[in-house]
Amino acid sequence: MNILTFDIEDWYCHDVESGNKEWNKLECRIYEGVDKILESLAERNLKGTFFVVGWLAEHHPAAIRKIADAGHQIGCHTYQHELLTNFDKKALFEDTCKAKSLIEDTIGKEIIAFRAPAFSITKDNLYAFDVLGELGFKIDCSIFPTTRDYGGMPNYGASEPRILEHNGYQFKEFPISPATVLGKEIVFSGGGYFRLFPYWLIKRLTASQDYTMTYFHPSDFDPDQPDMTHLSISRRIKNKIGLKSAYGKYLKYLDDFEFVNLETAVGMIDWGKCPKIVL
Length: 279
What we know:
Distance between the termini: 25 Å
Number of domains: 1
Radius of gyration: 17 Å
Low-confidence stretches: none
Oligomer: single chain
Strand content: 5-15%
Shape: globular
């Protein structure tokens, strides 16, 4: 099972270091990015799941409606792509409630799927699942079952779909899917990892797994996006690496494997026989 998901955020949303949220003063590239992705899927009759930042639904609703009108599943990616580790429970509830309401008002449909920016649910902010449960989310894609810069849960214990339970709330959890290479867990199926690794390796690792969760961004396929010169050198390199070749690799990926969105994947799994993880 290969699951096709996209995090719908513009190039400036990747700035999680400076705290600059005056996005309306920055160049908007989301329309071109969304069009590029939608065209690639329409040509192949594929459906994806799109996790949308609420600020974009508020300020650029036409781009979000275009995704929904094409028949793709919409999920929530918080209001302004803030790391969940920056919120206490009350602030997280307010942020996510605002985002969910804006997105639902934009597309005219309830949304039940969530992904945390930068997979920033960790063992130290599990109250995030209380918030998601209170807001009616049923599907989560926030678990990154190895280490990473801004999140990660290396002791989660699974890299395939599971029932996740926390304080009585249950979710159909679809984690990121690392692969083991030379004894080390690496993630290859989205973001900077996908842009960095050669396609032959991505293809081999995907073929070796029964479950792969992808996570692409419009900016992954935009080599002309502005450079955020105020960021650290390491973060600037990570934002820019592999941009020129990523879209070509992505198109090959779509052609070489079968993909479904989360909505279809949920229906393919016998959840009654699925193991449960209690956090």
